[in-house]
Known about the structure:
This protein is α+β, with helices and mostly antiparallel strands. The protein contains 14 helices and 40 strands.
Amino acid sequence: MKRKSRLRLFLVLALTCLLPNVSCAPISHSQEWTPGDLRQLDPLDDTILPSTDILAIYTRLQVSDLAIRVDLLDLPLAPDYNLQIYLDTHPGGNPWDVVIDIPAVGHPTVTPANPDFIPRIIRDPWLDIVTVSFNCRAVPRPFSIKVISFIPGESLPADETIPVRSDSLPPTMRAPLLLAFWNAFPATTPAQALRHWDGAHTGPRGERHGLKHILDNAGKYRVPVVLLDIKTPANLAALDYMGVMPQVQLLTGRCLLVLPDVAFADPADISIDFSRRAAAGFGLTGSQLVYSAASDFQTGYLGEFLTLEDNSHLGRSGGTRLIPLPSANADQAGQEGPSLDLRRTLVKAAFSSDQFDLVVAGGDLPHSTWGNEDRAGPTFAWIAAHPWIKPLTGEDIISFPSGSQKEYLPQEFFTLTSDIAQLRVAPWNSVTDAAWESYFSLTSPTQDKNIQLLRPHYLGQVGELLAAARWVDHPVVQARCDQDLDGDGFFECVLSSQKLFAVLNPVGARMTDLFYLDGSGAHQLVGPTSQFTIGLSDPSTWNLNLGQAADPSVIPGAFSDDTQILATYTPIISDDGIAFSSPDQSRLKVYRLQEDGMEITYHGFGPVTTRLPLAMNPQEFYFNPTRYTGHLSAGSWTWGMANGLQVEISSQASLAAENFTDSYPFLTLPEDPDLAYPGGHYLPFPLSVVSFQGAGDFWVHIRIK
């Protein structure tokens, strides 16, 4: 494929465009060429130069002009090919009575010379097209056409088409193209969302890269694409946060964006249900197609995207079409259009005698050149400009022939862990949803070996969420420290009333979870960042011997120690709360429930730095368009839903707050690696983190508004 600098491109353009009767430019045709203009497809030839391999011939009327277009496999900016277009304008007489000679260097000529026949020739090296147009009265119609290409200096043709009439019916052959991507938008923080949308130095070649360039060009050039794993709660919420959900909805409505339901984790039936619920909440419809990221096979769908041994044909299992995924990490999109390998594959598919042949392209988006800013546009443009290519919509995929060969796949199998067993029997409420979401985030498929080793240290938080889910169904008053909720072999404490439920861990004397119950249901107020994501820090800093402290980026709950995070406090249960005494008795933390919230008091010596992660109603964020708001005043921070529940945090200690919405002013711009983004830019969705600096004795109030 060609490799040219922008300076060389400019210079060659300037020189070539000075040739008489020849122009060159990246053309946006006022009238697009259609399949009805196509007259002939030419098979691949074993030519030395791609610029001499003829692919297609078109003719059409353009107002008073007649235009002949020739597609070639690959044209350089500086022509290195000669073309001859032969016309037979008097059938039955001497053939080829007009010859248009287009040399690599020099003036085009017409033989025999005719003052009324002055062709205008446009070379388009971006789309690999040569177009010849002339006054339609200059030659009688219909006529026959033949095109011959030569390597300059050679007398023998490099490629030659068979004669075709200018009014012949278009050939029916097409190259069916399925363009599909996975890992399309993996984002658990604003920083990740902006990076995967329009990131700087993020592509496989260190260029600007992201989903933005796929969606923009799919819409601009009307080339349908499949985003296999977008319809998960986390991905849709992140897209909504970026403000691009209207674009997603528009492209989906135009049949340019295919969004299958997603089995993004096991058990698949629950993750698919989450996928469909989130899609409905964000204004998207359910699909007849499903992508199975975790399990092998799902029932109840017309088609399923799977890794198949043969990715050029659809398989079948019963009544379900099995749709192959593209090969991962293929360098298919270039600065001048599709790679030569992909072009040749498309031509071969168009000529294939096998009606079931299919070209599947795309792949793992973060590792694919399709998402590069300077490659996506040229590649989508090239596909759109060649009407012998048929990019498939969702309806096309469902109707595409799958052949008579049936391929039976095994039903899904996965280990029925104790976590799944408990989740299956848990009462169905928003807290159980949060427990499932946490479980999925820690068990969904990943190729990252480091993350695989880190995840098990945080699975215990699912048990704490399930304890809260059971309380939501049967709220009781309790203050106890005799249950191992997270399965680590040590007891945790529960402090609850009819309205509030808190999980307190003696390790660090921290509050890992806080929930509030009112007439509208349960509301999460506090949660560890590991409930939403882990592994945000450098893997070299992880210490897998430290349990829930393995990842230093994790905030393991509220009011954890700034030092000695693993210190085990002694709980002291009283009538009005639970106190925790440090091992050296130098610090005492007291948690007390109140009618409208909670009071936390510190007693001890020396300075204290601690944090409070506010996880306000995360299920609202994941399943519906949601807006959060915050207000900082002297000694207090108010945070919550713009039109819903909020909490006010006040304290005697010095107080500061960061939140994920701090990134809003930067979302309309591409990622800037030189910009100092606010701290909230790196927080997991949808958190606000309040930091406290105190000395000696101080209190913190959490008040529900």
